[in-house]
Write a structure and sequence with these properties.
This is DUF5062 family protein. InterPro entries: DUF5062, DUF5062_sf. The protein has four helices and no strands. The protein is mainly alpha-helical. It has a single domain, classed as Uncharacterised protein PF16691 family (Four Helix Bundle (Hemerythrin (Met), subunit A)), CATH 1.20.120.1930. The longest helix is centred in the N-terminal third of the chain and has 18 residues. The chain is globular and about 35 Å long. The two termini are 15 Å apart.
């Protein structure tokens, strides 16, 4: 798995957009005490369920892989002229 140039910023943006997406889908709001890793896993699983992200094999699932999948997803969803998309 090749790391994207600005993967950390893409993951941060994916969390922002993903939380909004999850709320629109009826997912309960994340609490202020929910860890970033828990949010990443929940959003990854929701996107896999909705077939917006291809699932990793169960034995290969880890937080790093989930972050990478979220970064790839948000990179595809962002508009062409978005700064995060241009840098990658």
């Amino acid at each position: 798995m090749k790391k994207l140039k600005n993967e950390a910023q893409l993951v941060k943006k994916a969390l922002q957009v993903g939380e909004t997406y999850a709320l629109k889908r009826g997912y309960a709001n994340f609490s202020a005490t929910t860890s970033a890793n828990a949010k990443i896993e929940a959003l990854y699983r929701l996107l896999v369920l909705d077939k917006l992200v291809v699932a990793m094999p169960p034995d290969k699932e880890d937080v790093q892989g989930m972050k990478h999948k979220l970064a790839i997803w948000i990179q595809k969803v962002l508009p062409e002229d978005h700064p995060l998309r241009k840098d990658s």
